[in-house]
């Protein structure tokens, strides 16, 4: 039996009704003061949406303020991140405690009053837009509109998967719901449409978006750009749509939310009509109310309208925090206590499953996760690194039950289908052969929705699962916003990008990535690995799986690459250090350095062998990850790239940007300085100079140039 205590309260008494309004108006005035003090921010949406947030938190949200990391808490995502002052005011009034490394003092409030007073200032918990990992109670970083709601779909998918995988009769361990408060801007962004379409298909019944339809954006009324029937669109997606005519009608809001609580077959959109800055005696123009502080005079008039002392700032009337504690706080604490008792009984009955849940929550790998990793014999023909990656992924998935993911309609091409796992789809109740599996499946199908896929992967990771997401490397341009947030939040999402260069051939320049490698290397917190052969793929996965606080991008080839003879060349274990000496000159004193990543490493090996036959001493350096290499000691980096060897050639079928760091101003960079060409892969390679002859000539020229300087 599910004994979560998140049902709404009975009809309020007059005193309770007075406290309800006082709490709502306190949320408003705290938000107004925070924005006014900073002289920066958005006061209008917090003022208009305060009743929505109050109704949701005080009457429905099941969340223990003493443990904001409780695994089965309801999730609240403020997708309208510009209304951050509203969330911070809620966290303060509800007494949510801070947890994690950013709160060294146990028992600290997630948001203290001083943080509200220093809104948008350096060091404050109240950043301009909510930032996950810095402020407890912030479930995901939001700011770019549409990201929050799209991420919430990943959280709802995680809940469905966790429930299907771990719940047992009489032992419901995962029953939480996912709420997102969104705005007109969220609804305009394409990523929200992608995510909503998929959520409707998946029938994620524990997902609720509350749409604050205030009909205002930065440029003015939404009538100038956004006149569609949003409710009809979501009904077409397969959502249940509830309409509330007035955000200030708590009874209507409660009834609307109750419809969601009773929904068992689909996600719910609650459309609430509000007025930005509603309640002020003076109507705000859209720019002032949405994007600027109100100004001292308007703040005074607004506080007078709410019945507050116009000269008091950051005032919290008596009874407000106690009222939140008696509702929101007590409900969440009681539900958490009951959950703890259930989980204790569950652990006794299902110790292996409980151990898996424990490991997930700590982002730990299961024992023996790497016991089945393959090893690849030397093979001149070799195989594509995407093929090797698929084998490694399957081997890890056998040992790690919470590794799951998929591709943007490209699993056959990205080699990311898990043959040992079912499909994540809504249950059909059919026992027929070939029937669609249920939510316990680990193969996620995103459709042609790259942006939503990556935002959903963030939601899965925030729920402590280990997700992977895959597509062609060129299509990362469609999902960069979500990928950037993976890095910003430090989420260990695994990105698998295939068809990594011009060598993918006939599809031509629209499908051949050129600038993507450079841009991913420029992204703080993103670990980029472009392995050179099958055994480097194995070692790259070994690195990736041990990351807990960063995402990684595996950049893989479509075409077969030779599997290097590791008895002749160095071990692929050097991948862990980002770059390593793969083949060296006799005596370890080279005349020239050949640097490369991915498919171009084998090209440099061939050039190395030819140069050796000519009596030229070369060193080949495989550099699968600049990020990891830069993290090594100066001594190690100098041992790989000796400072006294200035003759250097880099080879990579991508933008040359950044290679000057390693070859110096006088080095030669063989790279792409234009878009690609529609031609068979080998023809394209030769056309742009990626062949042995060009590398050998460049090496000779480098030696000659630096010999003259000497």
Looking at this protein, list some descriptive labels:
3 domains, six-stranded parallel beta sheet, Rossmann fold, 710 residues, five-stranded parallel beta sheet, alpha/beta, disordered N terminus
Largest beta sheet: strand ordering: 10-9-11-12-14-13
- Termini, distance in Å? 82 Å
**Low-confidence segments, ≥5 residues, pLDDT <50?**
1-9, 278-289, 432-436
Q: What is the number of helical segments per DSSP (H or I, 4+ residues)?
A: 25
Q: Under the CATH scheme, which class of the largest domain?
A: Alpha Beta
- The secondary-structure class comes to alpha/beta
Radius of gyration: 28 Å
Annotation, overall tally of beta strands: 20
CATH fold descriptor of the largest domain: Rossmann fold
Number of domains: 3
CATH architecture group name of the largest domain:
3-Layer(aba) Sandwich
The amount of helix comes to 40-55%
Q: What shape does the CA trace take?
A: elongated
Name the beta content range: 5-15%
* Mean pLDDT value: 94
Q: Largest beta sheet, briefly?
A: 6 strands, parallel
Q: Let me know the CATH homologous superfamily of the largest domain.
A: Thiamin diphosphate (ThDP)-binding fold, Pyr/PP domains
Structure description:
The protein has 710 residues and is an alpha/beta fold. The chain has 3 domains: 14-275 and 285-339, 3-Layer(aba) Sandwich (Rossmann fold), CATH 3.40.50; 379-562, Rossmann fold (3-Layer(aba) Sandwich), CATH 3.40.50.970; 577-709, Rossmann fold (3-Layer(aba) Sandwich). The protein has a 6-stranded parallel beta sheet, sandwiched between helices. Strands 1-2-3-7-6 form a 5-stranded parallel beta sheet, with helices on both faces. It has a 5-stranded mixed beta sheet with strand order 16-18-17-19-20. Helix 12 (320-349) crosses helix 13. The protein starts with 13 loop residues before the first helix and ends with a helix. Mean pLDDT is 94; it is low at 1-9, 278-289 and 432-436.
